Every structure is written in C-alpha cells, then in structure tokens.
Amino acid sequence: MGRFNSVTGTAVGKISKAIFYRLNGQDVVRGIGDKKKFKSKKVFAQHDSMRLLMNFFSKIKPFIRVGFKNEATGTIRNYHNLATAYNRTHAIAFEDDVPFIRYDKVLLSRGHALPPQHASVSTTPEGLTFSWEVMPDLPWSTNQDQTMILAWFPDMNEALFNIGGTGRLSGTDHLNVPPALLSERMEIYFAFVSADRESVSNSIYLGTLNG
To answer: DSSP secondary-structure letter at 173?
Structure first.
C-alpha cells in the first residue's frame, strides 16, 4: 500500500495500478499492466530478442558501461538501459519470428567525441591491428583520447576488448587474440574515449573477419 511523504510532498509505494518511487534523486511513477494468460508468437519472439541482446551485453558490460554512462548522466536511466533501448530498436531483426543481431547496426558507445577516421583492421599472428587516420590540428584534449577496441566471437559467445588503449595520435593499436581464436568468426568495433572517461565517440563497425 502506498503512503504520502509529507516532507517531499510525493507519494511512495503502490497506489491503484501505479508504483511511486525515487530513482537517481528523481520522483518516478510506473504503471502495473494486467497479466494475460496467453502470449502470441510475436510476444515470445520479442522476449527471445531481449535474451539474445542481454547475453551479448553480459560479455561486454565494461565496454558498454564506458560507452553509454555519459548519456545516462542526469537522467533516470542507466548505461545498460540506454544501450539496450538503442540496440533493441536498431540492431535486432527477425526471420520467421526468430530474432538475430544485425552486427553492422550495433552501437556499443554513444557520444559527441570525434570517431575514428578511415579506420581499418587486419590480422597478425598475435591478433588484430587497428589503424586509422591521424587528423591534423585537433584540439589538445581530443588528441589525448584513447582507443576502445572489441572483437566479438558470436559462434563462441565470447569477446575480447580493451577500453583504454593507445592514444589517438598513435594511428595504430593492437588487440591480442590467442592463436586458437584467430580463425574464428569475429565482429569488430572501434571507438575513442577521453582519458578521464567523460567524453566518448560513437562506436564504428569494422566488419566481419572469417565470416
């Protein structure tokens, strides 16, 4: 049963079909939906799509935490909410009600920093080498940005990543990959983040290796 807080002038708890509570210093209310006995095939497909995305994110949580935390600042949402909302809308597709991830549409970081320019990735005996164009005359603060690089192995349900790599001015970075994994299918992502983690670029997709 809900109650009224005379100090803040707000309700707290369940009242009728709504729940009132505090989140990140803000007053929030959410409705309580009616339960239905039967769920359609499309509803189950939506649930499957969420499980698919959550499985992906569970392996790369530190990466998306850095990638979306600034977007969540000052809102009642957290980094995981924002990453999920964007990618569920843009990166999940269905074939005969079976969900799959469109890796070329996945966004693992979101912000206003300059993204990698003319970037590419190649394999070496030790792993992956990332290269990009070093832009001239950038502000000093931008030149201090560091790489965020990630390889996702969808057939193995595993990921390798680094969220504090070389500086923007270096023009190259390397992600170590065990030899046994170098022939596996990989989905590759790249972004930049400031040294203080207060600014990040949108991630870019560098394609599939061993597809």
So the answer is: E
User: From the centroid of its chain, how far is CA 197?
Assistant: 15
Whole-number Å distance between alpha carbons of 157 and 70: 27
Domains in the chain with CATH codes: 41-209 (2.60.40.10)
Q: Where are the beta strands (DSSP E) in the chain?
A: 3-5, 10-15, 18-23, 26-31, 92-95, 98-101, 120-124, 127-131, 146-153, 158-162, 172-176, 186-193, 204-209
pLDDT digits (tens, 9 = 90+) for 150-186: 999 999 999 999 999 999 999 999 999 999 999 999 9
Helix-then-strand count for the chain, H and E? 4, 13
Look up tokens 């189950």; give the residue: 44
What is the value of pTM for the model shown?
Answer: 0.80
Identify which of 61, 60, 82, 62 has the alpha carbon closest to the alpha carbon of residue 71: 82
For the stretch 50-75, pLDDT in tens is: 999 999 999 999 999 999 999 999 99
Q: How far apart, in whole angstroms, are the C-alpha atoms of residue 111 and residue 64?
A: 12
pLDDT tens digits, residue range 89-124?
A: 999 999 988 999 999 999 999 999 999 999 999 999
Q: Which two tokens stand for residue 99?
A: 């969900």
Burial bucket for residue 16 (CB in 10 Å: 0-12, 13-18, 19+): exposed
